[in-house]
Design a protein that fits this description.
- By secondary structure, the chain is an alpha+beta fold.
- The chain folds into two domains: 203 residues, Alpha-lytic protease prodomain-like, CATH 1.20.1510.10; 99 residues, Alpha-Beta Plaits, CATH 3.30.70.1350.
- Helices cover 70% and strands 8% of the residues.
- The chain is built from nine helices and four strands, in the order H-H-H-H-H-H-H-E-E-E-H-E-H.
- Strands 1, 2, 3 and 4 form a four-stranded mixed β-sheet that branches.
- Strand 2 and strand 3 form a beta hairpin.
- Helix 2 runs antiparallel to helix 5 and helix 7 packs across helix 8.
- The chain is elongated, with a radius of gyration of 26 Å.
- The relative contact order is 0.12.
């Protein structure tokens, strides 16, 4: 199966599972009267909207570059991840507000925990399976939006476990206030996850460079490919754009190196980088080590370099 088809399938699974889980939680929350379950239903509702956004962004980002988008459609995934992060944060604020209001007004009712426990167990199992699949496909495709959706569902797993533990404690101890307290603790955890997703997506949207360890990895590939090639100082420009890593490199060769040899080495460097970063777009410019753009005495090698630039 092609990677773009796998991405669409994973996003489709996320939509279906979120519809099912949201419906179950809303029903269980209304029947049981549990604020923590209703809070979880709101969380799952944000998951549902996020999964629709993910499906749309995955579909758009899989389109090839065109006249209007010469660098491809990868930014759709970054934008989707950014919006998903805000949806998670928004859900955390709603949960906190509702829970604090219940505690302040003293409007606490004992939830019917049996149905809530059953629904939370089902939600934990289903969300764990779907999020694991999303993470797997996200890793294979380097998809930002699928990763964000996976994180969205994984927070649902932990928050559902928290609600489950709270319902069991209420059943054992009879302390009704635990329902609201646990909901507040869950909202803090959810906020933290949303903040991390927003931060990561924003770095991509603002064209931040790839992490230092990845830049170092690219440099090691270049130095180990051939003794002839030298990376020009501070000449790596690399960024993440949706699922694709864009890289611009300037390589320097001895002036007696033929154009064909330079091209062959550059091809090998592209191949080696591509083996590590499956979804990558690499642009390489090469010039002689002695090259000086202000030089008036052009040597044979400089002329060759100028031909290479035109190519």
């Amino acid at each position: 199966m092609q990677i773009n088809q796998k991405k669409k399938l994973a996003a489709g699974f996320s939509i279906i599972s979120n519809i099912l889980i949201t419906t179950l939680k809303i029903t269980a929350g209304i029947i049981s009267g549990s604020i923590s379950i209703i809070s979880e239903a709101l969380h799952s509702l944000s998951d549902f909207f996020a999964s629709i956004l993910t499906y749309y962004s995955v579909k758009k980002s899989s389109k090839p570059a065109d006249f209007d988008h010469p660098f491809g459609h990868g930014r759709y995934e970054d934008m989707a991840g950014f919006i998903e992060g805000f949806l998670i944060i928004f859900a955390s604020f709603i949960i906190t507000f509702t829970s604090v209001k219940k505690i302040m007004t003293g409007n606490l009712t004992e939830p019917q925990s049996s149905i809530g426990i059953a629904v939370m167990v089902a939600a934990v199992i289903l969300n764990f399976l779907v999020s694991s699949y999303l993470f797997k496909v996200a890793k294979e495709s380097n998809s930002v939006s699928l990763y964000a959706d996976g994180e969205h569902l994984r927070t649902d797993v932990y928050s559902s476990l928290g609600v489950l533990a709270g319902l069991i404690l209420i059943k054992i101890t009879g302390y009704i206030i635990l329902d609201s307290v646990i909901a507040i603790l869950i909202s803090i955890f959810i906020y933290n996850t949303g903040y991390k997703i927003v931060q990561k997506s924003l770095l991509h949207l603002l064209d931040f460079s790839l992490p230092d360890e990845e830049i170092k990895r690219i440099k090691n590939i270049i130095s180990s490919t051939s003794d002839l090639v030298v990376l020009k100082e501070n000449s790596i420009r690399a960024r993440q754009s949706g699922p694709i890593k864009d890289m611009d490199l300037i390589l320097m060769f001895p002036k007696n190196t033929s154009l064909c040899e330079c091209h062959k080495i550059c091809d090998e460097i592209e191949k080696q980088i591509g083996l590590i970063y499956k979804n990558s777009s690499i642009s390489i410019h090469f010039e002689p080590i002695c090259y000086n753009k202000n030089c008036n005495n052009l040597c044979k090698c400089d002329k060759t370099s100028m031909v290479a630039e035109k190519i």
